[in-house]
User: Fold these one by one.
Assistant:
Number 1:
Amino acid sequence: MPHKRLFIPGPTEVRPENLLAGARPQIGHRGAEFHELYGRIVTKLQGLLETEQPVFLFTCSSTGIWEAAVRNCVRERVLCCMQGAFSDRWLTVARANGKEADPLKVEWGRGVPAADIDRALSSGKYDAVTVVHNETSTGVMNRLDEIAEVLRRYPGVTFLVDAVSSMAGVRIPVDAWGIDVCLAGLQKAFALPAGLAVASVSRRALEKARTVPGRGYYFDFVEMAKYHERGETPATPAIPQLHALDAQLDDMLAEGFAARFERHALLAGIVREWARSRFAIFAEEGYESATLTCVRNTRGISVADLNRELGRQWLQLSNGYGELKEKTFRIAHMGDTQEWEVRGLLATIDRILGA
Ligand code: PLP
């Protein structure tokens, strides 16, 4: 039975080899074989993120690390940069975890100007800031380097970054940019099954966490750090996903991280050129995402009908998110996607629309 080839911005298409990598006999999570697996994964993730900080493995989706980040790293008040459905939700999560949180709102489709963050932080009210690197609902990729430059002037502010739909798709030099928590799930640019998420956690953030009350248990960074030293997680992890991650990181190394990022840039360029000539791009110029394109539906086509037709050919893209439904549609070009696949999708859309 064929399946619909996913061009949605998560979960993304998983190669059969990586599905099979998880289909192995279970191993105990307190033994030498597991310690080796854990160590291999952490070392490779540190290479990907250009960091010497620990990288923790979480058996949950990215939302879980949103909770973890605010519970461990917000003492008084957090500034939440909001520019779309996911960045907006991080504020909701912070408040649901009992934290004082203020919005820094930017119109959907726009990037967060570093100067706005600077202005807000200069009030001295905040000890943490949340930024979504790549807002998946609008296809906007923030200029994290410029934001990092601002954060450098506020050493007392913990820098929390959601790289859910950018990690493993674009370069994120975590240490050079001084990111305290950089988190992502595996079902986006890692092109792996959902169920596992990862985050680099700076030693500075860990020190702070020790002094923040109410960290809970499952997501307590201090507890995770203790187990991390032994090459373990505090609770039983999703072992099949860890095997798949180990295998996929080897494949990424074989391709080369830089080559992987270049491939993402190439695919983004192809989709953007197509989108500009047929429709328009939702993201503000200069902030277009390298991993997905949110297309503004300037021709008033029925996105639902288009997707139905694509489905007959075992292809699937994504309608706009929430209130952007039918006003936009999204094409993911991340993970292990190749040029011929993207060109095939675009040619099929053209045929369906009679372009
Ligand atoms: N952050 C971003 C940028 C996302 O795109 C998503 C989901 O698409 C999430 C967070 C939440 O991820 P999950 O539903 O896997 O917890």
Note: The mean pLDDT is 98.
Number 2:
Amino acid sequence: MTESQLNGRSRSRVVHGPPALGIDVGGTGVKAAVVDTNSGELLSNRIRLKTPVPATPQAVAQTTREIVDRLAAEGPLPADLPVGCGLPGVVKEGRVLTVANIDQGWLAVSAEEVLGDALGRRVIAINDADAAGIAEMRLGAGRDRPGTVILLTIGTGIGSAVFRDGVLLPNTEFGHLEMDGYAAETEWSGVARDRRGLKWKEWAAGFNGYLARVESYLWPDLLILSGGVSKSLVKFEAYLETRAPVVPAHFLNTAGIVGAALWATGVGSLTGQQVRDVLSPS
Ligand code: BGC
């Protein structure tokens, strides 16, 4: 897609890299934008619609279709535009294998098929936290950071992405660590904070317990926070107690969109070396 094809979408004069469409299906909202895959810059508006209730595959596919139609109304989306989609569950070979914050109907369903059919395009699916992690490792807060880096996305649930020297260990699901008899995310996600009416200080005190657990298992060198809560880091960072430094995601709540777009251009099921190449192209 050239700048003229983008119809004035680009905020800068030069389009630096190949564009791709990133979609982020969350428990609360479905969001998408066209992304410059070299810079992570959004080349279109970010369109967000509420996640349908119930969030069945067909309903989510319909919402996604509506969003993509709106983007297409802003300017043409070429037929060969790579499309990546992050989903809130374990995703293997395009199939959703766990369903905590999305309708049970997704279990074992190929997101790539359902969304691909709805959009009439090839769609590459990935876990939403892994997508956000890829965006941050390649272009954001984790760029050029060796060692163990963990991104936690805190919104409706808690998602995790674990990298060792830039290589992703996919589908880690550390939001489901058991704490006090519950999956950690049911007590310490952003939505759980709202539901329980916790002040930032109270929430951070409990979240510290969760971070301590994650740190005791994995000893990260850097923790990156993304998702709805990351834009409020200034309100609670003073209360956090961790061994590793904690930083907000560079792309904040759009990391999932950016990473899904990057994943689509990296394409397919990658080996560790290939993932490394996607994260740190020479
Ligand atoms: C899901 C994860 C997801 C996280 C954030 C959890 O409930 O199990 O796969 O990454 O929510 O959306």
Note: Residues 84 and 260 are 5 Å apart (CA to CA).
